[in-house]
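JOB MANIFEST
job_type = single_chain_structure
chain_count = 1
residues = 320
[input]
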Amino acid sequence: MTLTAPPRTPPGVAPAPAPARRRRISTSGTASRTLISAVDLQRHRKLYFTVLGLTLLVFTLVFLFPLYWMVTGAVKSPAEFARSTPTFIPESWHPETYATAWTNMRIAKYFTNTVFYATGGWLISLLVDVGVAYALSKLKPIFGKVVLGLMLASLMLPAAALLVPAYKTVVDVPLFHVNLLNTPWALWLPAAANAFNVYVLKRFFDQIPDDLLDAASIDGAGKLRQLWSIILPLSRPVLGVTSIFIIVAMWKDFLWPLLVLQDPESQTLSVALARLSNTSQVPPTEFMAGLAIASLPMIVVFLIFQRSIIGGLSAGSMKG
């Protein structure tokens, strides 16, 4: 075997540049699986974005058209609203219908009732759900997994199947024999037992390292102090999301308040609007205005906290 030395460069001549190495592009760890590959996307770029735009437009119209019909229906005249051939754009505008509906339908009264029920239900539900989730996650009770499994199994039951047992429980509370009809507790106590909120909170609490709680325990902090000083400050994202879920559920609920709030003065806004719609004293345009006013707060809440909702649900891990 003979070794040949590389040719020497004559003096005064610049050395030839080394051949460039081909860089191997590694897609591992950076590429992600998609429905359409990058090559096909470049070939059919216009077709792809055309189909995507049409799909988004159709779904937007499907979801927003009922809102548009409700808002514009309120500003029509009663004669125009009652036509057999509907008009998509009002021929005459009557925005004063909203002020008339606010006064004649006593929306302020029922709006205050709904805010009161939603606020109380939020406080009680958060207190119960946080306590149950903390006990199942960190206190590790006996048969804790069985209790959690039974709670999650209740999510498989249709809500209509639970109406009769829940109503009988509210009419005559076991052990106490108290009738809770026409009281806020008829709404607050059933809403506090929410298996979905407990599961979301427990999953977040499981990601909090036990070392933090052990260090606090060595310093003399009890279980309640650990919950108040460590668990709750770290759980602000998921607590915000759970709070939004509770308030929205309390605000939009109709069937259960209809059953347990039989006194007209104590009814929520949704129940009162349904009751007033059956009377001949309320024109249909004023009823549409009342529906628009009732839906406005929750739309504003979603538009403000939509990022918090998505971020809170996905916040389930902590960096070590």
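[summary]
The CA atoms of residues 30 and 128 lie 43 Å apart.
The domain at 100-314 is CATH 1.10.3720.10 (MetI-like fold).
exit_status = 0
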